[in-house]
């Protein structure tokens, strides 16, 4: 009996040890048999981490880590081979650390002697995490920032917090992410109380050695909401003084604090508009407070509802265009990649064409709010690359910052779906180098996260690469958009018409399917949103004959009798796409079953179960939308023949 118990116990320990829960992300380097020999030019917390990673995981002989002040001060690095081994040089400690991760990731094939520098200076995660631990649009558990586990009086935090923050920072550093906005853009004023500032300081202390700066989202009404002033009017002297004092307190605690992210006069948030002031007046007041410390303001252009009756996709330009050039030089206007709201496919946001005298930065959404959340395998790099392709090269090169709304929570595997980790990874890699191809990044991530056998890599890279288009096909083909179930944005609701919601949230407002046809006329005969685009896109999108068909129903209201270029009617075309989307997911389910031998049991089964769920949901999209649109089409055609 005792033997059996011992055997069961031993079996339990072994299976536990080899169970793969996904917590190690893409950081699964093989342990070095003997610690690598590492020469470190100077001591610092960051250099210690860099040296530690190499001695633990580098298999290729000795490495010298050097600070070379003649290199550009941009966190870039050079990895070169010398007779003694490998040298990693950078002007900064963080650059050396990035070089170390490059060396480990490429197992030495990155030793090129070329200088490798990031495209964007600030590579930022935006966490939409609330102080109570919930995460807006978070699908991977609760927040990793457990504020109640930080004791600001004693200056301590729980071991769980410290371990997780360290792992989080390491994962970010390994892909070059160097900034984190810790809290939701729908910001609680509480974040600016002394207790929270002191907690933020403790988080900043853990992240700093990994080269990560912290930022906060701030509620524009904070001074008033905290009861310190009577108003939050940006031109009120006391308000300006309040912010200046607050900023001073923050920098005393966190000397390298990054600055503020602000959502103002949008979806019910307070802002300068409450006092008839402009976004520029609001942003500049905060920018003036941050300026002495080199802090910045990231002011979001995601606004709507202030221009009653205007097409929502036009409103950012309507509100910001006249302010072009009026922002202080430490303000960056942060703009979502599309003009609506992180849909599976949107044309690019034309604000990027309309504001040439103001620094802009793109905001991507890594958390898949409208792309199946953490239940669907949807690889987002191709979508982000599509955006980059629309922005003129020069303009992209001039941008200094890029943000991604994080998909990270306290789930064991960080992101809910094992494949959602790829989107965090891809964001970091593209923020470093937007020229990388989506395939390269997928291949890299799969190798690091699962296995490097080509029998696994080829089919799974293909699955990842096609997954975004599949999602567009089963959710919103041919330019349809925003027909999600209200509020939680998961699953279809084409008949959505809740009278208590703002019109800009209603599916029927977007697809406009009726007796005359389907789609939103944003051409010059409609809302004229096309006018906000630069040529050639303006003319291309405006004309139904030249509009790329993937945007057809985004820009045009198409009669049911309209024939697409392939001769199909619009309804027929929609059905073909819905079917294609579903059969792609069917293919993924089968493909994954063939991958069993390359993947550990736990992750294999977890991905299998998510894929089955994705298939069910894709079918729901197809069935619900086809039925709904077809019934309108049939009625319309019947009426026409009468
Ligand atoms: C979307 C999302 C909100 C979020 C908002 C924003 O509308 O559904 O949860 O607050 O974007 O980006 O501010």
TrEMBL record:
Query: So which domain of life are we looking at?
Result: Bacteria
Q: What is this protein called?
A: Alpha-glucuronidase
